[in-house]
Design brief:
Largest sheet: 5 strands, antiparallel
Shape: elongated
Number of helices: 1
Distance between the termini: 39 Å
Number of strands: 5
Strand order of the largest sheet: 1-3-4-5-2
Radius of gyration: 16 Å
């Protein structure tokens, strides 16, 4: 059996709580996506050395549910850098409650754009 592991850098960890779940105890997909967006904002702002916004997210499908008590771990990898934007591969993994087991929940490509003080796209600084 082949074990897969996360791609990229661990950028965000948070606990899935009852307020984020439906009646069956499954965490809402929109909450998971919001955590992925937060992680992208952190990683992209570090790379841009300034303000960034989400410009696009590619399609997302969920391989398995996140349950109450799981730790949601978001990994980010900058896969492309343009003049004013960057594309990040974002993976969401669930560390199961009181267990070392990690399951990949979903992934997506996020496009983030650097903005200046006038809300206009601005060139990314060199690395």
């Amino acid at each position: 059996m082949t074990m897969i592991s996360p791609t990229g850098e661990l950028t965000l960890r948070t606990l899935a709580m009852p307020a984020d779940a439906n009646a069956a105890g499954d965490i809402f997909g929109g909450w998971v996506m919001a955590q992925m967006d937060l992680a992208c904002g952190i990683r992209a702002a570090e790379r841009a050395k300034g303000r960034v916004v989400t410009a696009a997210v590619n399609e997302m499908s969920f391989a398995m549910p996140v349950k109450i008590g799981d730790t949601l771990c978001i990994y980010t990898d900058i896969v492309k850098v343009g003049r004013t934007s960057m594309t990040l591969l974002v993976e969401a993994w669930a560390q199961r409650y009181l267990s070392p087991q990690m399951d990949k929940v979903t992934n997506a490509l996020f496009v983030m754009v650097a903005l200046d003080q006038d809300n206009k796209p601005t060139p990314l600084p060199p690395e």
